[in-house]
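User: My advisor asked me to double-check a structure prediction for AP-1 complex subunit gamma before group meeting. I don't want to rely on an old file, so could you generate it fresh from this sequence?
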Amino acid sequence: MVAPSLKLQDLIEEIRGAKTQAQEREVIQKECAHIRASFREGDPLHRHRQLAKLLYVHMLGYPAHFGQMECLKLIASPRFTDKRVGYLGAMLLLDERQDAHLLITNSIKNDLSQGIQPVQGLALCTLSTMGSAEMCQDLATEVEKLLLQPSPYVRKKAILTAVHIIRKVPELSNIFLPSCAQLLHERHHGVLLGTITLITELCERSPAALRHFRKVVPQLVQKLRTLVTTGYSTEHSISGVSDPFLQVQILRLLRILGRNHEESSEAMNDLLAQVATNTDTSRNAGSAVLFETVLTIMDIPSAAGLRVLAINILGRFLLHSDKNIRYVALMSLLRLVQSDHNAVQRHRPTVVDCLQETDASLSRRALELSLALVNSSNVRAMTRELQAFLESCPPDLRADCASGILLAAERFAPTKRWHMDTILHVLTTAGTYVRDDAVANLTQLIAGAQELHAYSVRRLYSALAEDISQQPLVQVAAWCIGEYGDLLLEGNCEDIEPLQVEEEEVLALLERVLQSHMSLPATRGYALTALMKLSTRLRGDNNRIRQVVSIYGSCLDVELQQRAVEYNALFRKYDHMRAAILEKMPLVERGGPQVDEEAKESKAAAKLSEAAPVPAEPQASKLLDLLDLLDGPSEDAQHPPPLDPSPGGALVQLLDLPYAPPPPAPIPSLKVFEREGVQLNLSFIRPPGTPALLLITVTVTNSSGGDVTHFICQAAVPKSFQLQLQAPTGDTVPAQGGLPITQLFRILNPNKTPLRLKLRLTYNHFGQPVQEIFEVNNLPVETWQ
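Assistant: Sure, here is a fresh prediction for AP-1 complex subunit gamma from the sequence you gave:
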């Protein structure tokens, strides 16, 4: 015998009484079978009960799509009990992605014109919940007629439905403008609040509506002044604040109307000052009104004194006991630090105190604001505070804090020695968290400050002797010891305490780095090169260095093995040239992207090859001529191409030195992307030996006020091409013109057909994820002909 169908209340009790999910599914499957059978039988008296049970099943997450057509039948029914369940089912089971929703358009139109308020309310709620653009276009005139109905109940729902229509079809904004002007005189709280929301939506989506409603600014100002002074109604007051929801909506509308409009801003300045000084902030309702007032003041062309008052309010928010209010204040100050830097600077001590917040989101925002407040006048004090925070901050903040300190030191360093000490402190404290370019920046700084060479090598040697786990620190120290090891042994630096170092101690320390399990392959490469350079700087025997180098000739790491083999060859075959080859690195001018440096080097090489031989040549030319002996004497010997600046490729070219013709004319660069200060440029090189190969260097720069993080550039080419993407130099582009990211594309075009390039960029900017996909079709003809 088949069990009878359950009532809704009995179904709820039985589902809640199920002890396992399997029992729950069994109950629901049985009841859904009864519901389907009832729908097939077409019982009109119990259809709404069956649909009510089906809606409960749908709310539990089980499929209920077979009840969609029953919703349409109930909506078309003349009974209110049927319409109520039918409209509820339509809101839950239908949406604009399904064609069935268009079938209820006529039913809604008929119900809106009937004049029965409960039915009109149901139809308006359904239209505002799931109405598509087609439905909104068909029913907009019906909704516009209901905006001026005598019943506040219908008017309120019609206003909210009009908001939905404008969001779906902004072109319909004009039909609601006359009604809104009349509704502003409304005394009913719900209708007035909905009207303010509707006008706000109109102004955001229609420039014509924005110009139209700027005429009502005095009326809005008067309404808000009445709210602040006498109140609207006691039943809508919260914690002593008169109707905060209506105040916030009016302030938000005033902000839109006053933006970039001097006359409207003048009309509301006095009122904003009154709200800012008289609002009680002991409760959340008052804080919400005050925060909206601050946003309005900062977004319109207000007076300077009023802007300072707004920033002082945010400063008081930083001392609030509520974490949410402190978070909002930090976010707002971060947005204002560029436009009102001096006013925000007054609250710097409070912001620095927020670094010690236990809440991770608060301390992160405080860190971002603290870094934004650093300038040339407070860089020493702020750096001390940030370094103290770096020592105790959570691990997930260390990378951002270390990068921020390095960027601030690079931009505002008062002296080179202070700059170097700051970087060294960061590397010592959080070396594993620094950005990839920290090592290159510090080596560049040390190489460019000749008066600090002795000081630098001693400081780095002492730091390395204490800790060899921080890999960036070890790499910089190894590079510096290899370059200036002779200064380390002299012991005549007056800036620090005397340090007596023996040759054996230096070699033992570098060997320890090579043997440490914590050392990365790149770090071992630095240490091995440092040992090789010390062979020309130490006065003792080089046998120990030769033994260490020969050991790594059979290393599993290919890069390290190649380097050791080349160094061994230098010892055995070209020992007479070792001192000249391992001289101190020349200072590399810092500036633009890698392509610009390559272009400069190519031009320099071309000039060298064209220059007539003269008896007196610079030191670099003598070294190049000396290296030409490896290929045998030649009267027409040309200078080799510029040396690869990378550590691994330098010695390979020194020992190989193939003949290279003068470089061809440079191909013009191309800007292919720009958005909010983020710019992407392409520069091109076609190696003379392989005309089918095109090297594209992608350079990403950032002139905005926020860092670009997690940057990824992906590319695709047609099938007739071969594309190889090299690893980028990093994934972060600092703000305000910081060090750019470069990435090399190698494209093989054997058929020499026109090149089309499709790029996909993903990154985070101002805390928001950004994704751009575009095609580059306007590449210069020199790239493929």
